[in-house]
Amino acid sequence: MNFEGLNPSLAEFAPPLHPALEPVLDPHLNPNLVELDPEGVSLEGLPVPESVHLMEGMYSELHTAVSEVGVPVAASHFDLHEEMLWVGNHGGHATSFFGPTLERYSSFQVNSSDDIRQIQSLENGVLFLTKTNLKYMSRGGLIIFDYLMDESEDMHSLLLTDNNTLLVAGLQNHVLEMDLNTVQETQKYTVEVPGITIMRQSNRFFFCGHTSGKVSLRDLRTFTAEHEFDAHSGSLSDFDVHGNLLVTCGFSSRMNGLACDRFLKVYDLRMMRATTPLQVHIDPFFLRFIPTYTSRLAIISQTGQCQFCEPTGLANPADIFHVNTVGPLIMTFDVSASKQALAFGDSEGCVHLWADSPEVTFNAYSRETDFALPCMVDTLPHLDWNQDLVPLSLIPVPLTSDALLSDWPAANSAPAPRRAPPVDPEILRTMKKVGFIGYAPNPRTKLRNQVPTGGGGFGRVELCSLGRDMLKVTIKYSKLGLEDFDFKHYNKTLFAGLEPHIPNAYCNCMIQVLYFLEPVRCLVQNHLCQKEFCLGCELGLLFHMLDLSRGDPCQGSNFLRAFRTIPEASALGLILADSDEATGKVNLGRLIQSWNRFILTQLHQETQEQEGPQAYRGAGGSFGSSGDSVIGQLFSCEMENCSMCRCGKETVRVSSTLLFTLSYPDSTAKDYEFAQILKRSICLEQNTQAWCENCEKYQPTVQTRNIRCLPDVLVINCEVNSSKEADFWKTQAEYSFQKAMMKRGGFDITKGKEISLGDWKDLGSPDTGHSYPSVEELKNIWIPHAIKMRLTKSKELDVSNWMTEPPWLGPTDDPESVYIYDLMATVVHILDSRTGGSLVGHIKVGETYHQRKEGVTHQQWYLFNDFLIEPVDKCEAVQFDMSWKVPAILYYARRNLNAKYNLVIKNPIEASVLLAEASLARKQRKCHATFIPLMLNEMPQAGDLVGLDAEFVTLNEEEAELRSDGTKSTIKPSQMSVARITCVRGQGPNEGVPFIDDYISTQEQVVDYLTQYSGIKPGDLDAKISSKHLTTLKSTYLKLRFLIDVGVKFVGHGLQKDFRVINLMVPKDQVIDTVYLFHIPRKRMISLRFLAWYFLDLKIQGETHDSIEDARTALQLYRKYLELSPQGGEPEEFRKVLKGLYEKGRKLDWKVPEPDSQSSPKRKMPLLSPPCVPSCAPCPFSPC
């Protein structure tokens, strides 16, 4: 901020303004101020007179607090991560206030002499800028780093460009760039016009405000000046940027002095020129955009006047209000990130908080603030001596060397183990004995995964739910990676799980939900377009893998790779860093609900695009019409939004939505059915401020939302993001449990009332009309398994819980207007403080999926927890114990949904994907080609051989730790990405000639090219400098998918890892892996280089690997295997060959000898047929 326009006497602390600088306040300034303590610091905020009424949408004064009496406030800043307001003064002292009541949180000295000129909050602390010092401190006042600049510097402003980079500028002719990780200066940019006091940033430019009155626009990467606006002739006071508008205020030079300019200069950043200046009715000193409803501007004068106006309209004198400051001047002004609060700092050390509502929040999603722990000495918990499990360590005792009373001699004590709880008499009565083993039916008096705790089996028994199947599952890695991990232990079904170790795999459960929606599965598997990163295409390819799998887990690496490239996903905060997932700082329940909204919108847009000219080469017809999306038919619901102003003006707007968010009432004590809350959320009514064209200003309006049609799939985000919503669900579940008990046995189950064991058993015996087998399974249930929705002739919505069985139409119901929705899936957030929790899904799997996988026709609920899949009871899908299992998303599907849609899947991948295509590399020439594409007469047929090899690069290094015994434990494997894929012909006149040799372009950062093992060099994957045949992963993936669908047999060495990294599911009968052909069980695997030397007398992989050479060698080894082990031949003969191979390998330590040291034993080994190996066709390339 530029201080040249301030009262000159203020900087000198003139005696008339500050007579004694004593820590007391002049009572005539404000009679409502509280008395301060002797230190001059008020411990509470200064209350606003009771007559002040906060009107919703209008800013009014809420609280006033004192930072340091008599010392002017120099900087104020709303914390971007917590509900805090930071204030720095001219004495170098910083103070923070918590919440809208401005409770003092921390107060500490930043600099002993210089004033604090700017404050910037970060995730782990706060940055303070003074004249020659940048200090980073924790919110409690501990110094993280202290960076001293040159004494000649005079810094005034800082700008955080990203999480780790900072720009610092001042009155000198340069701007410093600093790295916050290393706390070092990384760059020094020279500026033409010195004196930068204000800096802002947009998505196009850095904006620098100069003391000369100019605003320069600079490039985001090079910091070079692109444009310059000469805004004010005297000096610049403040400016702000929003969208395409730049607005400034300042001073003009008049009669050898500075005069405040009452015209705000407005610039259009699209045309880079000034528009009509905006005349205001006050002397502007500060200004900020407050884009809540429109692009409003808040203009503040130094004397405390504030005016709101539109940057392209006329200022209205009626929109002016006055800040009741203690001091005569306003020194600082800031706006919270939520735009709900304004902060003013005055020259007497007071800060004033204005807000538009009493329950104001500074940020949309603030994290919880850590407070100092209270003294525990006087607040010790009550200890119940009757409980055996009470930890006596809760009692603080002093350290002493004397023997304690509890230190009993061994002679006076005897072990007394806790007695086991008695066996249920019902089990003993129905038990049948076979030998010494007894069998009895489960009486269902306790829920699964529950154990008695407390009391040791005596007195009242409390049940502690474990829910271990829903906890976060992890993969234990060994030396072999995942090859020896027993996935079958976690999944005994034939459905495919998803692996969780990939970044952003938190969405696995939602991928499963979409997969088991039959119309969505068929839609994306029929979809294919030319976009490199299309979520619809990648989801279809992933669903195809889930179809092929027979219980083996799949991984969505290609889908998540495309997901990370979508700009909207990054803007919504859906892309998580590895540290966020590991530390569990993210609210997964809120995150998966945002992901749910994003994926439905993205699929709707991608499948709605024209399929004609944009369709992928060779793709078949589209699933739906070009103008309508199947996603829209399934999920979309047309809404009518009506806004009624109090003047009587009504505005109706029609929109559509793909899902609904539950809206809860303020009262949690009332009994509500789920259908009531659902109707309330769909037909929402709320009061808010909106622009009225009739009144020509913002007015309180009543906004109502009505539904015009019903969707086929009802998607509901539960929005349980705080304890208030969780208490509401818990209360409603208790009400539902009471009503269910009253309906079953006539008992009144009230809170705190004890029921005897006999009563529980009587209630637990199911009657003929109830579907629940036990009372325990009625607990924590509020949502129904079915919902009935109907639109009346007047378009009013009727919603009710549906519990009856067919016939489900009433005598007055129209079959076309009545929709019965069955619960199809629930996604829940499992709370776990140790791991940060996890997301699991309960999915009702339909008949078609069981028929395809298991050959039976029935419906069943399953729990999907990444790669853990198990059948569950239907009541478990709707039971939500809010202490550890929080609902996030509900999917209700209309009955007989599949009959409405075409569920035929036509493979959209055709043979044309194998034809010649252009390379992405600009320098690639035909003379550098390493392969010959297939001709039409060479198209592969079922059973043809194809040699395959792939090379990889590393995107993330492996994370491992050393155990205490010195062994290595892999925490997270390295993340690999395919870099080159080669396929060679396996038969015909061109056998051994490659027809695919694609280098895969990647946009992600490569940490290790593994050149020694892959042959990939830096630059090979860069389209600007590469000379290779460069393609996209999607293009090459489709070629391999076509070969799999045709039925070719792939021959290679170590193909299991290749297919895993490429993310392909290949049937086992189409894979011929030479690593297993020449392998004795329980012995080591043998490298391709050693096998080629031993059997073929070939020296390969000399300096680096070459995928063409490796693929050819694998084909020759397979031919050699057929020669050594012909069908019908003696297996003992081939075993002797393998034994000789292993003996030779052990002697040479599995290393290929140097040239001329030893000859290959190829000619010495016994052969079952004449020693002629079919030779490959001569390679047409040189060198080879």
Q: Could you name the ranges where pLDDT drops below 50 across 5 or more consecutive residues?
A: 1-45, 47-53, 454-466, 610-627, 747-773, 1163-1184
Overall mean pLDDT: 81
Structural class of the secondary structure composition? Answer: alpha+beta
Helix fraction, binned, reads 10-25%
Q: How widely separated are the two ends?
A: 68 Å
Largest sheet: 9 strands, mixed
Strand content: 25-35%
Return Rg in Å. 37 Å
Helix count, DSSP H or I runs of 4 or more residues: 21
Question: Would you count the extended β strands for me?
Answer: 56
Shape, per Cα inertia axes: globular
In short:
By secondary structure, this protein is an alpha+beta fold. It contains 21 helices and 56 strands. Strands 38, 41, 42, 43, 44, 45, 46, 47 and 48 form a 9-stranded mixed sheet that branches.
Task: Summarize the helices and strands and which ones pair or pack.
Layout: H1 8-11, E1 46-47, E2 60-66, E3 73-78, E4 84-89, E5 93-98, E6 103-109, E7 118-121, E8 126-129, E9 133-137, E10 143-148, E11 155-160, E12 165-170, E13 174-179, E14 184-190, E15 196-201, E16 205-210, E17 214-219, E18 225-230, E19 235-242, E20 245-254, E21 257-260, E22 263-268, E23 273-274, E24 278-279, E25 286-290, E26 296-300, E27 305-309, E28 320-322, E29 330-335, E30 341-346, E31 350-355, H2 425-430, E32 432-434, E33 437-439, E34 450-453, E35 462-465, H3 508-515, H4 518-526, H5 535-548, H6 557-564, H7 567-571, H8 578-583, H9 588-608, H10 630-635, E36 637-645, E37 650-657, E38 660-661, H11 674-682, E39 685-692, E40 697-707, E41 713-717, H12 723-745, H13 757-764, E42 786-791, E43 797-801, E44 818-830, E45 838-845, H14 847-854, E46 860-865, E47 868-872, E48 885-894, E49 945-956, E50 959-962, E51 968-972, E52 975-985, E53 994-1000, H15 1011-1014, E54 1030-1031, H16 1033-1046, E55 1049-1052, H17 1055-1062, E56 1071-1073, H18 1074-1077, H19 1088-1096, H20 1107-1124, H21 1131-1147
Parallel strand pairs: 38-41, 49-55, 53-54, 55-56
Antiparallel strand pairs: 1-2, 2-31, 3-4, 4-5, 5-6, 7-8, 8-9, 9-10, 11-12, 12-13, 13-14, 15-16, 16-17, 17-18, 19-20, 20-21, 20-22, 22-23, 22-24, 25-26, 26-27, 27-28, 29-30, 30-31, 32-33, 34-35, 36-37, 36-40, 39-40, 41-48, 42-43, 42-44, 44-45, 44-48, 45-46, 46-47, 49-52, 50-51, 52-53
